[in-house]
Amino acid sequence: MSADSRIEAITRRIIERSKPTRDVYLERVRMQIGKGVHRSVLSCGNLAHGFAACSVGDKAALSGDQVANLGIITSYNDMLSAHQPFETYPALIRQAAAEAGGVAQVAGGVPAMCDGVTQGQPGMELSLFSRDVIAMAAGIGLSHNMFDAAVFLGVCDKIVPGLVIAALTFGHLPAVFIPAGPMTSGLPNDEKTRIRQLYAEGKIGRPELLEAESKSYHGPGTCTFYGTANSNQMLMEIMGFHLPGASFINPNTPLRDALTKEAAKRALAITALGNEFTPAGEMIDERSIVNGVVGLHATGGSTNHTLHLVAMARAAGIQLTWQDISDLSDIVPLLARVYPNGLADVNRFHAAGGMGFLIKQLLKAGYVHDDVRTVYGKGLAAYTIDPRLGEDGNVVREPAPEDSADPKVLAKAEAPFQPNGGLKMLKGNLGRAVIKISAVKPERHVIVAPAVVFHDQEDLQAAFKAGKLDRDFVAVLRFQGPKANGMPELHRLTTPLGVLQDRGYKVALLTDGRMSGASGKVPAAIHLTPEAVDEGPIARVKDGDMIRIDAVAGTVEVLVDPAEFDAREPVRPDLSANEFGLGREIFAPLRRIAGPADQGASVLY
After folding, report:
1. Residues 423-599, CATH architecture
2. Binding-site annotation, residues for [4Fe-4S] cluster
3. pLDDT tens for residues 101-114?
C-alpha cells in the first residue's frame, strides 16, 4: 500500500464498499479463465469462419491452441486527427505478432466521434452515450472468443473510457492499450484563447478565427491541450494499461512505431499460454483506480472523468464515488500546469519530464500505490522512465530525471503549484455537483449572484451577444443532463463567460450538463444531480434567485426561503426538439434508461 496513510484509508474504504460487487466480478472472471479461450472447442464451421481470410500459415497456427491470437479493437477513422494514425497500426501489430510467434486479427472497429467537431451542435447530444456504445461495439468484436489477448487502439474523450469498460467486461483477457500520441505543437494556447475572445466580442471575423483554429489543430494526433483525450492517456499509463512512456510520443515517428510493436509483443507475452498471465480484470483493482484518480488531480485533468472513472470502475465491480474523488483531491497537490491550467501544451509537459517524472514524484511522496499489477509486469516504479529509441530500433528506457526540465510546467511534490488537485464535490439544497478550480483564481472560488435561467445554450449565447449579461450573475443552464438530452458538453460557453469575467463581473455556471477538462478560468458547478428532467431542485430555480457556489466550503445552494422553494412546481419545458435530427432519434432508449451523473451517467450500470 501507499506510504501516505490518507491515501491508504481512502483505498481501504473503497475496497470495503466494493467487496460484494468486486467478489462477484472476480468470480465471474475466474470462471471464464477456467473455461479458457480454446479455439479447439469451436466447431469446425465456427473456426473456418474465424480464419477464412487468414494466410495459410496463420490458418495452421489458429487451428490449435498453442499459438496466441491477438484481437485488435480499433477506433480508426481518417476524419479525426487523433485516430487517423491508427490506419497503419494493424499492419505493424501483425508484423510484431509474427515476430513473436503469434497471430493478430482486427476483431472489430468502434465509433470515434470528436467533441471538437460537434461542440455546440446537435451531434454533441450523442457524445456521452457513445462511450457505452463503444463498450458494446468492442464487446461484439471480442464475443467471437477467438482471442487470447486484446489490444485497444483509442485516444479521445469517450473512446478510451468505452474501451476500458469493454476490456474489464472481458476481464479474463489481457488487455494492452496502444495510443497514437499528440500532434506537434501549433498556435500557442494563450494566443488561441485571445483570438476566440476577440471573435466573441465581434472584433474579428470568421476567416481570422478559422485561420487561428487551423493553426492550432493542424495535423495527425491528439489535440495538444490537456482536456479529456490527453487525460485519458495519462490515466492509461498511471493505471498500468500502457507500456511505460507510451502516452505522449508524437505520431509517425520511429519511437512511436517501436512502442506500438513492443505493445503487441507484450500483449502476446501475457496470455494464458505463457508464464506471465495478466488478465485485465485481476490486474486492475482498487489501488489502480486510486492511482488513476491521483494522477487526474496531480495534472489538473478533465472533469469528465468524474463520470468516466466511476463507470470504468463499476465495470470491474469497484464502487468509486464522487466523495472519494473529492477527498483525494484535498490530499494530492497539483504538479502540472498544462493548458487550460497553464500556458504549456502536452508536448511541453512531455519535454519537461512527462509521465516518468510525474510518477516518480507521486511515488516519492507516497501519493500512489507502487504494489500494483501492470501490463509491463512490474509495479508502478517501472514507469518512472524516459523512453528513447535504441540503436537497434527498439525502445530503450532511461531513468526519469530527478529535476523538471521546465519548473513552470512540472513541479516537484515538495513545491507544488497548489496544495490540492482543485476538483471538489459540491453539496447543498440544489443537489450534488463537481467543480474544477485549478485554473480559477482564488477570489472567484466563492460566487454569490442572482440566477439567470436558460434551457438551451444557444439562448445564453444570444443573450450575451445582445448585451443582456453585462452584470453579476450565475448562468443556470438546466435540462442538459443525460436523460434530458444526453448531457452534451458546454465548452462553447467558456468564451462568452470568460469575456464577461474579464470585464469585471462575477459570473459562474451552474448546470446539470458537462463542461469538460476545458472549463478553465470560469467557476462552473457541473454534472448537477438530480438533473432537471428528474425534477431535481434546479428545475425550481427562477430568474433572480440568489445562488451561492462555494468551492471552499464545498456547497451549492439557492438562497431562497426553504418553504417557498419547496412549494414551487418544477418547470417542465417542451424538450421534443432534442429528440430528432443527426441520429438523436435512435438514442431515445438510452436517454430513457441513463443513470445519474454521480453513478457515471451510464446506460450499462
Report:
1. 3-Layer(bba) Sandwich (3.50)
2. 156, 223
3. 999 999 999 999 98
